[in-house]
Specification:
The protein is built from two helices and 21 strands. The longest helix has 27 residues.
């Protein structure tokens, strides 16, 4: 009986310690191991495939997207986009409603010379395997002239597409039309200032927060109907070349990626700011920075801590009783 108690306690302890490390859910650090991926410039968590992250190389790679299993770091599917011509500088990827993948061929860092850039849209495959998918190509222009940009986000509720331009002294959030058109030019207009030299951005899964990262830092904004309200700084890890960001599938973590061979993706707890600011209309309200939010408040931490202490105590008693047994 005592041995059974000790074994039970040990099993509970192992289970309690292993529970947070849910690599299958894609909320842990991982390394991209595909030797073809040397300039991972965008990152997006799959909604329908837990633990899968989509990424792509920067320029000069072609129209390829890679599905990475965060549990292993290996590529489980390569998608070749057709119908998009030759990409110039793919910098961002985002997943919108109905599992629609949006790819931003929006980089223009060689003198800001392009009079237009492109966005590609395709449906995320239900089965992950190597395949070719025809994408829809959209022509994009900015209302105030050419821009260099590395951040493209799609609101998870409305599907509206936004771009943040990349400027050292801070840029702007540009809103596209309510629905993109494949037959004409889509004009993006500035709607809010962004005080970050942005290399990528991401919406929280509920659309209430916008995370914007740079090389050495990041800012969290309440979406506030597109009238951004700064909430605080993000805990951006120090990386060789911080390029990409996405929320994990459940929104509990923010995942930060970098460029380079065997590049790492690091997970940090997503900040919690309450539940307002989720409207995608101009009348949205601001968000409070004092709210506990969902899934990460102090109450949950205390409860988890109490469970862990209890398990440790049971394990201690079981092992202590086991040592007291006389040898046979």
């Amino acid at each position: 009986m005592r041995r059974s108690l000790a074994l039970l306690a040990g099993g509970l302890l192992v289970g309690a310690l292993a529970a947070p490390a849910s690599a299958a859910d894609g909320d842990q650090d991982f390394t991209i191991k595909d030797s073809r991926i040397t300039e991972s410039s965008g990152l997006a968590a799959s909604r329908q495939h837990p633990g899968i992250y989509w990424t792509h190389n920067d320029s000069d790679d072609g129209a390829f997207l890679y599905a990475i299993d965060s549990a292993t770091g290996q590529t489980v599917a390569t998608v070749t986009m057709t119908g998009v011509g030759t990409p110039r500088d793919i910098e961002a990827i985002s997943i919108g409603p109905n599992n629609q993948i949006y790819v931003g061929d929006i980089g223009d860092n060689d003198g800001v010379t392009w009079d237009h850039v492109w966005i590609y849209q395709l449906t995320e495959p239900k089965v992950l395997k190597n395949r070719t998918i025809r994408a829809t190509q959209y022509v994009v222009k900015y209302s105030d002239g050419s821009r260099d940009a590395e951040s493209l986000v799609v609101h998870p509720k409305t599907g509206r597409v936004y771009i943040i331009d990349k400027q050292e002294d801070g840029g702007h959030l540009y809103a596209g039309p309510a629905r993109l058109s494949s037959s004409g030019t889509n004009v993006f207009r500035p709607v809010a200032a962004v005080d970050m030299w942005a290399t990528d951005a991401a919406f929280s899964p509920d659309g209430r927060q916008l995370a914007v990262r740079g090389y050495f830092g990041g800012v969290s904004y309440a979406w506030n109907g597109g009238k951004l309200k700064r909430q605080g700084q993000l805990d951006v890890p120090l990386q060789q070349q911080g390029e990409s960001v996405t929320y994990s599938r459940d929104g509990s973590k923010i995942m930060y990626g970098s460029e380079g061979a065997q590049s790492g993706v690091e997970a940090e707890d997503a900040p919690s700011y309450g539940k307002s600011g989720d409207s995608d209309s101009a009348s949205g309200n601001g968000s409070s920075a004092s709210g506990s939010g969902e899934g990460g408040g102090s109450e949950g931490n205390v409860r988890n801590g109490a469970i862990a202490v209890g398990v440790l105590f049971i394990a201690y008693l079981g092992l202590k009783r086991l040592r007291r047994r006389p040898s046979s």
